[in-house]
Amino acid sequence: MSPTTRALLGAVLAVASVTAAMAQPQQALPNQAAQPQKVLRYAFNVAETGFDPARIVDLYSRIVTAHIFEHLYTYDHLARPAKFRPQLAVGMPEISADFRTWTVKLQPGVFFADDPAFGGKKREVVAADVVYSFKRVVDPVNKSPVVAGLLDTGFIGLNALREKALKEKKPFDYDTEIEGMRALDRYTVQFRLEEPRPRLLETLATPDLFGVQAREVVEKYGDAIPAHPVGTGPFRLAQWRRSSLIALERNPDYRDVRYDAEPAADDAQGQAILAQFKGRKLPMIDRVEISIIEETQPRWLAFLNKQLDFINVPSEYVNQSMPNGVVAPNLAKQGIAAYRVLNPDSAFGFFNMEDPVVGGYEPHKVALRRAIALGTDLERLISVLYRGQALQAQSIIVPFTSGYDPAFKSENSDFDPARANALLDLYGYVDRDGDGWRDQPDGKPLVLEYGTQPDQLSRQRDELVRKDMNRLKIRAEFKSAKWPENLKTARAGKMQIWSLGSSAAGVDGQGALARLYGPQAGSQNLARFKNKEFDAIYERMQSMPDGPERDELFRRAKLIAVAYMPYKIWVHRYTNDLVHPWLQGYRRPTFWQEWWHMVDIDAARRPPTK
């Protein structure tokens, strides 16, 4: 059997598996027996890791948790630029003049989805649940990937509580009250901070990572809690076959929430969506089914075969499906609509700063990383890998966030092989044994080891990397594993070089700088970069209001990052979504993850499942 035949057979089998998964019988919800279920079907190209907010950071798990859990605030679905609105809270927070005390009132009468942990009783959300959920993130046993970021926020007494558990090697003390987060009464929670935090609202609007949980549920399921998410959101987990299928169903205990939003007056699309759905009870659909389809061809075929309701078009199919940004005629005849947006994201590669080959702060180690960066052909990368659907990045700060300056230019985007080779020669990375490959200054072989994944897109990227490194006479080897396994390895500091992407979770660009902040090494800071000057800038920015002075600190931080090159930021990507006509009200969020409850399915227009 030829490789082409095997690839096509694999694609057919993958699509068949999607069909089989989505053809499973679905139990009708109460009072809906006569109505066909409205089911949203789509695919992730990377597998999830679990559904416990305190233990995740990957995008795909967060998309799911954002629809099961809620937080005090959320984003207006149609507002551009982004705008906050209450979710579990009543109104906006009461904020002290120095931004160090934030007081929030909760809505009474909001209940968790039913679960055996509640003993058959309805369980109301109270202020103590908000406090408990934040404390779970810093409980050492949970090994939260975002613990450093939450501690950096500076809730008074929270770090001391964590350090006590670590020092005494005892279970985390959830019952000790701390000044930094307190339930003043059943429906009032107050946060007190060591330093001013003008942008704390972003932390309070992150249900995917800090969603409110019930203590009795966590204690009932223990280490199995990632498979038993119980929240207050519009959906609940109905089925999970790890790395294969995720199904959510309407939460029958969800309160009466109606569609409302505030699109800009000149936002024609947003205004049209609001006019169509304003006042509708949420969620408007009954079920969501997500298949994990890592390879692009099977995912694309599943959409064409109407087994997926929408798709983030794989880059290799963009030009044929959306030539010049317009839906291809054969797709337009089917009523398929296209949406193209620039993402607040970046794709990048990081160097492990603790690795003996590529890490370190000595001049020759810095020169090596900068040479590798200068030898990376971003134009070729955009052309081949992204099919033109990306912009060259100049820094780690992403579009639509504070600190992003479209006029900023840096060495980060330069492609200069001659300069790269000259740097390597100057700092002693030369061929010492005549085998045609560069060696390290101490004479040891220079071999780069890249983490990668066993999918087509990764293989294409690896081939581009290999060509770039061959141009510099540097040997490159690739070690393949599934994405979640690579993430674990990277967090443990055992990955030399790895590439991945990241999207902003809010409007503040400082979130991207966390990848360079020393105390977040092994968490957001996968490169394990540590620089006192950078850390001081980062800490100063946290307490400053937005303005020119803070913008200048952004500029200085970006220059430090380019100088030491712990990351090579490649691109900011465009997303091209194609949507079948029966999926109505779709609009890709800018920063937030939750949107399933804001769309409708016209079941009468959807063809029957094949």
Description:
With 610 residues, this protein is of the alpha+beta class. Helices cover 31% and strands 18% of the residues. The chain contains 20 helices and 22 strands. The strands form six sheets. Strands 13, 14, 15, 16, 17, 18, 19 and 20 form an eight-stranded mixed β-sheet that branches. A four-stranded mixed β-sheet has the order 1-12-9-8, with helices on both faces. Helix 13 runs antiparallel to helix 15 (417-426) and helix 19 packs antiparallel against helix 20 (548-564). The chain is globular. The model is unreliable at 1-33 (pLDDT under 50).
What value does the Rg take, in angstroms? 25 Å
Largest sheet data: 8 strands, mixed
Helix and strand composition category: alpha+beta
Task: Bin the helical content.
Answer: 25-40%
Detail the poorly predicted runs: 1-33
Number-wise, the strands total 22
Distance between the termini: 28 Å
Question: Which outline best applies?
Answer: globular
- The number of helical segments is 20
Taken as a percent bin, the fraction of beta residues is 15-25%
Average pLDDT level: 93
Question: How would you concisely characterize the structure shown here?
Answer:
This protein has 20 helices and 22 strands. With 610 residues, the protein is α+β, with helices and mostly antiparallel strands. Helix 1 (3-22) crosses helix 10 (296-304).
